[in-house]
Amino acid sequence: MSIYDTLNPEQKEAVLHTEGPLLILAGAGSGKTRVLIHRIAWMMEQGVSPWNIMAITFTNKAAGEMRQRVNNLVGQGADSVWVATFHSTCVRILRRYIGHLGFDTAFSIYDADDQKTVMKDVCKRLNIDTKIFKERYLLSVISRAKDEMISPLEMEMAAQNDFQKKRVAEAYREYQAQLRRNNALDFDDLIVKTVELFQNCPEILNSYQERFRYLMVDEYQDTNTVQFKLISLLAGKYRNLCVVGDDDQSIYRFRGANIYNILNFEQVFPDAKVIKLEQNYRSTQNILNTANEVIRNNYGRKEKRLWTENEEGRPIGFHLLLNAFEEAEHIIGDISSHVRKGEADYQDHAVLYRTNAQSRLFEEKLIIAGIPYKLIGGVNFYARKEIKDVLAYLKTIDNGKDEVAVRRIINVPKRGIGAATLNRVQDYAGAYGISFYDALLRAEEIPNLGRSGGKIKPFTTLIQNMRSQLKEMSLTELTKALLDETGYIKDLENEGTDEAKGRIENIDELLNKLAAYEETADEPTLSGFLEEVALVADIDSLEESSNYVVLMTLHSAKGLEFPYVYMAGMEEGIFPSYMSLNGDNPEEELEEERRLCYVGITRAKRELMLTAARQRMVRGETMFNAVSRFIREIPEEYLESKKKKEGPAKPVNVPKQAAWIQSKESFRAKPYESQSLIVKKASGLEYGVGDRVRHIKFGEGTVLEITEGKKDYEVKVEFDTAGIKRLFASFAKLRKL
Fold first, then answer.
1. Order of strands, edge to edge, in the sheet holding 241-245?
2. In the prediction, which pLDDT does 579 show?
3. Three-class SS of 620-636
4. CA 217 to CA 233: how far, in whole Å?
5. C-beta separation of 23 from 262 below 8 A
6. Which member of 199, 281, 487, 568 has the greatest number of CB atoms within 10 A?
7. Helix (H, G, I), strand (E, B), or coil: what is residue 682?
């Protein structure tokens, strides 16, 4: 029996078609890597020299796995096949020929820290205000320009009279000049300079076209414009280009990926053959039906429909919970139930969410329940830099004796207080037997501080002012005031990068934690909050093992698979995200969000559960979001019966974290019912529409609307300072004025 007889008809057709351009549209779980490996084997059997075969992918891990599988299948001669990433390929080419572009072949490759150092110097040279133009922001814009092959000169011409764009273009020009003086390239340059080399030196291009007569590119939907140009140049002579990808899994637009590379492949190569791999070997048919129905709502895609010979499987679970606390408890209770019954191990479960900030509640619940977990593509919530910074400020306000906390944030944001100054303060504290912070308060008395003493004063004044307001403000309000006073959020906003946006989301989640603590604690105090955080943040005692629940963002989950998958936060504004719905190009951004949903759904092999919350804290305030449109796009027959009253799975032994969770046993509602069902209904309200009322947190306002539900009243109030809020009467405890 031939190794090719194990392939399905479409896979076999793709393997045997070796001449001319070929587009393989490989749906999720359809065995695309298997096709590439067998294609290499077939070409070698047909007499193609392995020296003439090239396979390009995106990550070293993927390249290593492909190399191993080629060696295992082909054996002798496989080592001569060029299997590499885009960047490693370009480095090898440039090490030989970059002299043609005026660089020395011993060029340096700058990482992110090196780039930032160069950009700091550029900003100094050009007198660029880094409070307005953050180094990270400038580097991000430059990276996107290189992805699109836009030169500094082209950027300057496009800027015209726009001052901000002109300053960025100037920084770009000077940045490139500095790299050239340093005989250095950044990672984007590796590909850009290779394209320049090929365009300027036809004889070098021809030599590589002769070398790589058969070219294959994996994950083609993730390529950007300059990568597409590189591939087109290499394949320009013999046109034996095979690209494999899935337009429905193009989710890296924010990194520069251009979905039109795959959508318009046949326009660039009119004679291209297109083969669709639609048979899935991973999931049940119900999971695939769900994925198909969601993604079919996208316009910018090539039509295909996944199917499988696997069992039909269970319907997709959708659970609309009261709040994010109950959502986390429900999911972890379900995981615990599977393990307790012996149906699965912890490692068979993955919890997926849209943003890293959503991990916090799951981490806390898992720690308290004693369930091992691993956070993929992120850092433990309380170990993230921005969270540690804010907590260090709060610790300093609460207890100035915590020297570690004080030292951490004395220069956050930068105050120009150097190490020598801090050492003198430390010596003074030791000499007088006082804390480091108390020594800072006496900075004017410390000898040899000079001007640095004046830089310490604003810091201690800030801390003292915050301390004086502890009794007047709630902890949430105090933290917001602290963030405003320090400009911490504003600095992140000025960075304008995706990483900075993620940091802001994490800080918002910390505010949610604060608000939840204040609502549930008998006597909320800053010390009490910091103590609670310290207890759940201590994960060092978790047993290291390979058997753990996986937590990750949907982006991180691409390429992975799990028997049981949970997708949390299926609400408008969460997923799809608020930014995608209100961005510069909402139609394209919404379609990418839907592709991200498709990726999440197709990670599941056996069972998939989707969850949403009726109310969720965002930046310390309770928000009421509609169920995600992606849920509404799933036909009823693929979901668990909506007639069955929903309720959380048997919970694990986790202490109640919010007063309203105590009512969960009496709270059961259909997934699509009005958001007016909650706890014990009041016998009547002392206020009506038009009345003035007072809320303990939001202050005074006017009642606009009252909706009577089966178990509570939902009250819509326009507050004088906080705006319009929808509240449940039992929780709001509004008082008529």
1. 82-85, 53-57, 214-217, 241-245, 22-26, 273-277
2. 82
3. CEEECCCECHHHHCCCH
4. 13
5. yes
6. 568
7. coil
Beta carbons within 8 Å of 556's beta carbon, 6+ residues apart: 376, 377, 378
| pTM summary value | 0.72
pLDDT digits (tens, 9 = 90+) for 6-39: 999 999 999 999 999 999 999 999 999 899 999 9
Helix (H, G, I), strand (E, B) or coil at 720: coil
Q: Rounded to 10 degrees, what is the CA torsion of 525, 528, 530, 536? A: -140
Phi first, then psi: what are they for 354, rounded to 5°? -75, -40
What is the Cα–Cα distance from 459 to 462, expressed in whole angstroms?
5
Quick: pLDDT tens for 147-180. Answer: 999 999 999 999 888 888 999 999 999 999 988 8
Residues 513 and 530: beta-carbon distance below 8 Å: no
Are the C-beta atoms of residues 603 and 282 closer than 8 Å to each other? no
The closest alpha carbon to 513, from 662, 354, 357, 399, belongs to 357
The whole-angstrom separation of Cα 622 and Cα 695 is: 14
Pick from 389, 403, 366: which is nearest to 541 by CA?
366
Which helix or strand (DSSP H or E) is residue 25 part of? strand 22-26
Give φ, ψ of 83 to 5 degrees: -115, 115
The answer to whether the beta carbons of residues 470 and 397 sit under 8 Å apart is yes
For residues 701 and 720, give the distance between their C-alpha atoms in angstroms, rounded to a whole number: 5
The sign of the torsion formed by the CA atoms of 218, 221, 226, 228 equals positive
Positions marked catalytic: 32-33, 218-219, 249, 603
Neighbours of 499 (CB within 10 A): 10
Which ranges of 341-384 would DSSP assign to H, the alpha helix? 359-369
- Angle at 276 (CA atoms; ends 274, 279), nearest 5 degrees: 165
| 626 Cβ neighbours under 8 A, 6+ residues apart | 571, 572
Instruction: Give the pLDDT confidence of 650-681 residue by residue, as tens digits.
Output: 433 333 333 333 333 323 333 333 232 233 34
Place of tokens 């080629």: 70
Q: What are phi and psi of 659, to 5 degrees?
A: -60, -40
> What tens digit of pLDDT does each residue of 60-77 get?
778 888 888 888 887 777
What Cα–Cα distance (Å) separates residue 149 from each residue in 57, 146, 712? 21, 5, 59
More confident residue, 439 or 196: 196
Closest of 126, 168, 124 to residue 150, by C-alpha: 168
Q: How many Å separate Cα 19 from the centre of its chain?
A: 40
Tokens of 621: 């305030």
> What residues form DSSP beta bridges with 727?
715
Q: What is the dihedral of CA 411, 412, 414, 418, to 10 degrees?
A: 10
